[in-house]
Amino acid sequence: MTSPELIQPDRGQDAISIHLVAKDGFEDWSKSLSAGQRSALAAQKFDGSGYQVGIVPDGDNWFAVGGVANPEELSSWCLAKLAEALPAGTYRRADGEPGPALHGWQTAQYSLGLYKKDEKPTGPRILLTKDVKAIDPAIAEAQAVCQVRRMVDTPAEDMGPAAMEAECHALAKKYDAKLKVTKGDTLEQRYPMVHAVGRAAARHHAPRIMHLTWGKESDPVLAIVGKGVAFDSGGLDVKSAVGMKLMKKDMGGAAHAIALAGLIMGGDLPVRLHLLVPAVENAISGNAFRPGDVLKTRKGLTVEIGNTDAEGRLILGDALTRASEEDPDLIIDFATLTGAARVALGPDYPALMARRDETAEALIAAGKTCDDEPWRLPLPSAYAEWLKSDIADLNNAHGNAYAGASVAGLFLDRFVGEELDWAHFDTFAWRPFAKPGRPKGGEAYGLRAAWHMLRERFSAG
Predict the structure, then answer these.
(1) Is the pLDDT of residue 460 over 60?
(2) Domain covering 6-109, topology
(3) Fewer CB within 10 Å, N side or C side of the chain?
């Protein structure tokens, strides 16, 4: 995790300077250096290229140099490599404020730290800023991102449905919210698809749904829903060993939803928040739900099971139905839903589907401002016929290989109340290749975009 101590107010305390320089401006910048300093950078092969880090002797002290694309327009990640590579200590930017780079400075120092000794440099790297008002929001966002990482990185045995429930309890306690947990016979009656998907799991991983409420009842209703499949074996339509390897991350949607709820409550957004997290393990046993079964739903529709490995949309269906019953101003759901979205967009861009153009545009614009841009995919009504069933109201999986992400979105759309504003993130929740500030492993995609959009939408005026 990260510590609030990583970002501190600049009150003139001793600190090591960081200079940022672009490759095309390096030659002019280096003219101000001594011959020995230039030689030191040359020995490190520093030329101002992106994410390079240089150490420059300065009498009895030293300063750091970082290569960036444009020192005048920093991104979230411009200081991230420095935060990874520099020794423990206190730093300040020499020629300006860190701005958005406060984020990457913190996330670069994330470590799960639960199962092996931390191999990163010991001690925190602290960054100073004179923009005191930026500190708390930057810390909150970085901690939310690292919460997603921690939950996703934690193995399924330690981040099962009960552990996700504990995360919700901790959130409710911290912000004085109300939490209702439904499981057992009541779950089967009220959320039948959640129960069906999770019933094959061992007792200590029994299915449940968490429903947290917070805020004034007179404020606009905002519903956040997250898919919490602690581990996805595929069910009786069992995955391959390769396909199963990363399935501890299949609760990434729940992690996003819980982290976003924390940002909303911590930011005291004037909304009536409903957080819904259906949590299950899609396991294999004698009582597992089967291909060809027809499931009842909270909404009253019936669903034929074309594939037990399309389970996430089932538990989300019941949760979205419950969210819709509050007649919300907006519903946002997060889910590690389809491999098709990854094939289309790769790991870095979360697929976004939305009923209303203005909501999609607001999310995309917000994402661009904070380096967390989603990419919109369509919800084409022409493909809805692919979800038809001969014996039920709809099937949970279509019989061709086309438009998998959009068809999954269309399935969810059937469970969202008519005319409601709804946005769906099909997010990977995993980074397969490390980048500065973004280690390999669990990752938040779409979280910051959603938070920045919500803050703009509900704080206006």
Answers:
(1) no
(2) Leucine Aminopeptidase, subunit E; domain 1 (3.40.220)
(3) C
